[in-house]
Automatic annotation (TrEMBL):
GO biological process: DNA replication
Lineage of producing organism: Bacteria, Bacillati, Bacillota, Bacilli, Bacillales
The organism's place on the tree of life at top rank: Bacteria
InterPro entries found in the cross-reference section: DNA_heli_DnaB-like_N_sf (IPR036185), DNA_helicase_DnaB-like_N (IPR007693), DNA_helicase_N/primase_C (IPR016136)
Domain DNA helicase DnaB-like N-terminal: 13-114
CC annotations in GO: cytosol
MF annotations from Gene Ontology: ATP binding; DNA binding; DNA helicase activity
Listed transmembrane segments: none
Pfam family, one: DnaB
The entry's keywords: DNA replication, DNA-binding
Protein name in the entry: DNA helicase DnaB-like N-terminal domain-containing protein
Species of origin: Tumebacillus flagellatus
Length: 149
């Protein structure tokens, strides 16, 4: 019976939590890393883990406001906006900054996050196309919509 349950279980969408953590940790370790990361990860939703999206959004908000980005300023910003508990508190932010020895590899970490996001987006698009075809949508319209993505 457990074999049957395992067969029907949906596989988890592509992601790499360690790369997400390392990307955020590298930014907290070296705030100048935000410039490199921002060129790769344009929106917070590219992170799979919701709390990482929230943290990255807060980092971008601080950077856009010209504020320094570190564990203290980030925790204050998240706390002021009622989001600190949803990301695991100050302890989680501190863990992120301690999770990477250097920010030198931040491009690699961010590229990994981006590739996993692209895979999730492709899966989502494929599922939408399959559903449209299953419900009888015109194949040419489905293909045209796919090309526009």
């Amino acid at each position: 019976m457990s074999e049957q349950h395992e067969e029907t279980q949906k596989p988890e969408l592509p992601h790499h939590i360690e790369s997400e953590q390392a990307t955020l940790g590298a930014i907290l370790l070296d705030p100048n890393a935000i410039h490199d990361v921002r060129d790769i990860l344009e929106v917070p939703e590219q992170f799979h883990e919701p709390k990482h999206s929230t943290i990255y959004k807060a980092i971008l908000e601080l950077a856009d406001a010209g504020e320094p980005v570190d564990v203290v300023t980030l925790s204050k910003h998240l706390s002021d906006n009622g989001r600190i508990e949803s990301v695991g508190g100050v302890a989680y932010l501190a863990m992120l900054s301690n999770s990477v020895p250097t920010a030198a590899n931040v491009d690699f970490y961010a590229e990994t996050v981006l590739q996993k996001w692209r895979a999730r987006e492709l899966i989502k698009a494929s599922q939408e196309q399959a559903a449209a075809l299953m419900y009888g949508d015109d194949i040419e319209e489905v293909l045209e919509k796919a090309d526009r993505r």
